[in-house]
Every structure is written in structure tokens, then in C-alpha cells.
Amino acid sequence: MDSSTLDEYLGTVPGSVSDLELLLWVLVCWALVLDIVLTAYGLSIGLVERNPLMRQALDTFGLAALGLAKAGAVAVALVFRFLWPEYAIVAPLGLAVPWILAVLINATLLASL
């Protein structure tokens, strides 16, 4: 496989997005929404946010803090993606993996109640 074929597959051709990268961004969006929904539900039934920084932000600003934190992370990932297009899949992968794990953990916790 030559370099140009790999670049095209990974979406590193300037101005392009590979199918893999697009799938990862879709997963990021779903994980973002599900994490906010599951966190909101958990808080509404009396569970407590375990991240002390986010707990303080939620106490101060409500669920808007969670939305702003997620939006900030997506913004940083998008800047990274546009500054270094040769690493296009790293940005959504770096958000999708931990957020999907958080969703799975939250869903498992809520299902066990």
C-alpha cells in the first residue's frame, strides 16, 4: 500500500473525511448525548458525580456545565483535526473511546439499581 492510498483511506487528503473518521464523529455525537442524558438521569435519582471538578461545576452551573465541557472538548478536537489533518482519526477516536466507555459504565450502573 503506497502513501497516497493510506492518506486517502484515513481521510488525510486536505478537505476530505474518510468513512472511518465520519463514523467516529457520529459515535462521538451519540456518546456525547447519551453521556449527558444518563448523567442527568443519574443525578435526578440521587446519584452523585464522581469527578470532583465536574461535581463542583454541576453544583454551580447545573447541566449546562456538562454540555459546555463536552462542547469544549469537541472544539479542541476539531482544532487538532484541522491543524494536523494527517492525524484526522486521532481527534474523534480520542473522544469516542472514553465517552463510549463512560456511557457503558453509566448505563451498567443505572441498570443495576
Number of strands: 0
The topology string of helices and strands comes to HHHHH
Helix content: over 70%
Enumerate the spans where pLDDT stays under 50 for 5 or more consecutive residues. none
End-to-end span in angstroms? 51 Å
- The tally of helices reads 5
Account of the 3D structure:
Residues 28-110 form the DUF5658 domain. It holds the Pfam family DUF5658. It is a single chain. With 113 residues, the chain is an all-alpha fold. The protein has one domain (18-112). It has five helices and no strands. Helix 3 packs across helix 4 (63-83) and helix 4 (63-83) packs antiparallel against helix 5. It is elongated. The N and C termini lie far apart (51 Å).
List keywords for this structure.
113 residues; mainly alpha; elongated
